[in-house]
Amino acid sequence: SPFSWQTTFQDGGEEVEDGAVYNVTLKKVQIQQAANKGARWLGGEGDQLPPEHTVRQYETSKIRAIKAGTLEKLVENLLTAFGDADFSYISIFLATYRAFASPRAVLELLLDRFGSLETSSHGEVANLNSLESEMVLRAEIASVLRAWLDQCSEDFREPPDYMCLLKLLDYLKNNMPNSDMESRVQNLLKQFQNQEVEAVDGFCSTSSSGLVDGEELEISNPEEFSSFQDHVVAEQLTYMDVMLFRRVVPYHCLGSIWSQRDKKENKNLAPTIRATITQFNAVTKCVISTILGTRELKIQQRAKIIEKWINIAHECRILKNFSSLRAIISALQSNSIYRLKTTWMFVSKDVLLMYEELSEIFSDHDNYLTSRELLMKEATSKFANLDSSEKENQKRSQKRLQLQKNKGVMQGTVPYLGTFLTDLIMLDTALQDYVEGGLINFEKRRREFEVIAQIKLLQSSCNSYCLIPDQKFIQWFRRQRHLTEEESYKLSREAEAAADTNILSPKPQKSMVKRISTLFLGTDVFTPPKEQPPKSSPVGGSSGESTDSASVSSCEFNHSENEDVCVTPVSSPEDPLKKSSVGSDKGYDSDKGSISSDKGCSSKGCSSDPASGSDSGSIPSRDSVAGSAPRALPVYNRQSDGSCIIRVSMDGLQDSVYKSILITNQDRIPDVTQRALLKHNLEPDAVEDYELVQVISEDKELVFPRDANVFYGMNSHVNFDFILRKKA
């Protein structure tokens, strides 16, 4: 045979320099060559070696990847990483540096310290004193700048002064005059100057300001909604989702960035993520208003609208739009829709089965494994991979999919962004920003980049969509007046005044869709308002459970914005079509804390969190990619390896907002109290003024002595929910 090679990796330990720590990996490549060709390599004749003889050659190289360092060292590493065979370093740094530095700080280090040879005295740069070396350095800096402009040009959008762009332009004029990059920066500066400050795209706005003059918000006309074909609605929702998702700035998703949005000075932080939340909730509210908004509808007509939305959700699945798919399913599982027992009885069996299959995609079993695997499977596929256990649904799916294929246009994939935000919030909570010596923990940034890279991959896939906006539908979608939770509850009660205990609606997946504020807003969890509409008698299930309460929670962001409206699923009686319940494992139930009154759940002790339940499980690990055993991260509701994550709310001041906090078996009350105060943007020196208690049940709390060890003193058999209360 010709030749073959085998590559093995070996841990080379660590290398420590002043201001930096490196991980070293030895890469060993074995090349095996057949006898005849090997003999020629050695300068001999082909028949001088036996045919079974092979020639082996070994080549060993060292890969050096920075693990932690000062900002200065991390910036210097941008110039040397390629020589160290750390080929992904520049991309990782550019995608995550906003968590620990500003664009100006990085640019000044890159251009002022390393861009000037006279002042260079760091690492490999110190030896660059010849003309050739100067050209090499200039080429390295140019390579970094080019990557920066390619991957993160938004970093330079700093109206009205654009100081970083002007500084970069000045450097290029002096060092690379008349270059392509100089003209590119000039064009970028003109582009930014000619644009207004980036705002949320108009079509996803549900305010009257986005309407044509003379138009007003209105409740959906059933006939007008029915006039839109199912696939047209799905395509238009996908068009809107694609436009917003492609504009998402990946670093906005970092836990350390997104978790700062509730500060007063950050009210405009991460507008691209806020836009996706607004659109998601607009879809959810639209579903509810079309079903409940017209009082005169007969039960059969309302059932037809539910069927239409299930069919639209199926079309979204064919288009690989998991965002609107999840929005529609969560709306159908909201309490105001779910409680319509008689209406659901008029939904055809085939459509109900389709609804069940679509719901299973978002089962919370094993950290939403089904939706994660499906998302990654379809991220790079040309078309959706549709499987159905029902023959009729399978035939229909394949027929619709074939129509898509016949068009010859590939499809992208629109994810549910909340999954990635959850992972990044968990990583930010579980991993320290700095390590010993005050060095920036760059290993944390490598882990975060694994999630960011998935977002970028999916954004790239969205370029494959070829969708044309339908202004008639978009205007209709804009005009919809969204019902408040009280309105939807009242209309639901008017539609079906009393629930018949002998009639069961389809069972929503337990914990299928966490409240939208929970998954999108990271560690902050907004519990529903205390004022709840009166509940009817329980329907099925255990005593104390009610499926007849308002479920569309107005989780307003900072009590002023409507972008965090959320829909909560509820516990429900057993579905006659399905004997086994998906996602009903023992353990923390993220449904608790919704407006539905699950047994033993209070607004204090039970609410959902991205760090809760199974959602705190597996986070992609670079170690697992490399083949070694992945390192377990601390998680919520489980003590592991001397650490865990707890949730702390402020009593009275902000009792509806939880913050996730990492604790270890070394932490005592003052340490945890101080971190909780910092997380809630309060004065950390006021530790002595507060006491920490764990919520055991609706009427029980565990109060900790002043110097108690929280890890060992807490009750590990209940939810890890704590309250920080000001002492009397």
Describe the protein:
- This is RGL1 protein.
- Pfam families: RA (PF00788), RasGEF (PF00617), RasGEF_N (PF00618).
- Keywords: Guanine-nucleotide releasing factor.
- One of its GO terms (molecular function) is guanyl-nucleotide exchange factor activity.
- By secondary structure, the protein is of the alpha+beta class.
- Among the domains are: about 10-35 and about 55-115 and about 135-195, Son of sevenless (SoS) protein Chain: S domain 1 (Son of sevenless (SoS) protein, Chain S, domain 1, Up-down Bundle), CATH 1.20.870; about 220-490, Son of Sevenless (SoS) protein, Chain S, domain 2 (Orthogonal Bundle), CATH 1.10.840.10; about 645-725, Ubiquitin-like (UB roll) (Roll), CATH 3.10.20.90.
- Helices cover about 40% and strands about 10% of the residues.
- It has helices spanning about 35-40, 70-80, 90-95, 105-115, 130-150, 165-175, 180-195, 220-225, 230-245, 255-260, 270-290, 300-320, 320-330, 335-340, 340-345, 350-360, 365-380, 390-405, 415-430, 440-460, 470-480, 485-495, 515-520, 620-625, 670-680, 710-715; strands at about 5-15, 20-35, 55-70, 435, 440, 550-555, 565, 645-650, 660-665, 690-695, 700-705, 720-725.
- The strands form three sheets. Strands 1-2-3-5-4 form a five-stranded antiparallel beta sheet.
- A hairpin with a 2-residue loop joins strand 1 (about 5-15) and strand 2 (about 20-35).
- The radius of gyration is 29 Å and the shape is globular.
- Mean pLDDT is about 75; it is low at about 115-125, about 195-215, about 500-505 and about 510-630.
